[in-house]
Amino acid sequence: MLTREAVLRQIDADRVIPIQELVGVLYDHRLRMPLRFCHRGREYDVVELLGAFRESTSPPSMLYLVRVREGSVFALYLDLTEPVALGGQTFWRGQWVLHFQVEEEEPMLVDIRLKQIADFHGHLCPDLALGYRVSQYALERLTIALMSGTLLRVVAENTTSAIDAIQYITGCTLGNRRLLVRDWGKHVYTFLSGEAEGLRLSLRPGVLPENPEMAELERKIQAGQATLLETARYQTLLDQRITFILDTPAETLFAARYLPVGWPSDSVATGLACCEICGEPVLETHLLLQNSRRCCLACLSDTLPARALI
To answer: What would the DSSP string read from start to end of 228-257?
Structure first.
């Protein structure tokens, strides 16, 4: 079954089957999506809305990218063509057009290992590819040290998708306390294979040049103003950046140097005690004394009211 990203790649590459036929559609106004359509005497139940795109504003029209129960993906176009005045308001009369069906087969964009990481993460993106490459590069440079049984640890300086690739490739995770994340918004990663020093790999300045077209499409997508073709074009630009990251030599992508690195204590405490402000159980090591009361970090930072609203 094609992912949403794979569907957009197919559309931008024009790997679609044109249909262009009028169809009857059952539309849910509360969910704002088609639930079922009938084509040539056969009914198709919609199980997933992959996207809704405003194709034009005058006259208004919408295009819905839907997956049906059988797994196929179709584009349904709501063509609003005739304004109708009623009770001082303007409504539109229109028709539904089954625009096209997306071809099922998609060429493999990446190797099977990265595909497994993308399946684990949920999608393939440039940050995930960067995490994949930096992990591979680090393991290559630290091969001899790791062969001696040294435990690998990683310090990452961002919270992007790269973190999932690093966890998958290296086995260093937040849960096993071998991954430390400092969200400084930088593609900088330090790999420690001993106690003395670490291998620091940082993304080189300018290695991923700005793409004005990509930036403009991203702005339109985030504002909900992108058409289906613009969204598909954006996916193609993402794929081109991913391909560049995968094909570029690691030495060109990352600057490497060794430096002394400390690692926080590995002591693990499982004992729980209740915060004397919110009353919730907290790891004893995470309680602080405030005005003679033991309280959690959330209460100390005044985040409890905001957290309670989530």
So the answer is: HHHHHHHHHHHHHHHHHHHHS-HHHHEEEE
